[in-house]
Structure to design on (68 residues):
């Protein structure tokens, strides 16, 4: 397992936190997600043999947030 911190722009409330958490948790290879609203990031634990950071970021963008 590997851990990465994704910067996420556009989260304004706990509903946003729930959306980001849900979409990341649903991905195969993702083992743990912790979203920090105030900091604007998500700490994601994932298996690098199953998924990469680019796919984590595109999942976040797909639900309407930016990954600068
Ligand atoms: Cu929100």
């Amino acid at each position: 397992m590997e851990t990465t911190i994704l910067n996420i722009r556009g989260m304004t409330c706990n509903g946003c936190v729930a959306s980001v958490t849900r979409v990341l948790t649903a991905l195969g290879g993702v083992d743990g997600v912790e979203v920090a609203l105030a900091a604007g990031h998500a700490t994601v634990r994932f298996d690098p043999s199953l998924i990469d950071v680019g796919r984590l970021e595109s999942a976040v963008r797909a639900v309407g947030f930016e990954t600068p």
Summary: The pocket of copper (II) ion is lined by residues 12-13, 15-16 (CB under 6 Å). The longest helix spans residues 14-25. The two ends are 24 Å apart (CA to CA). Helices lie at 14-25, 53-62.
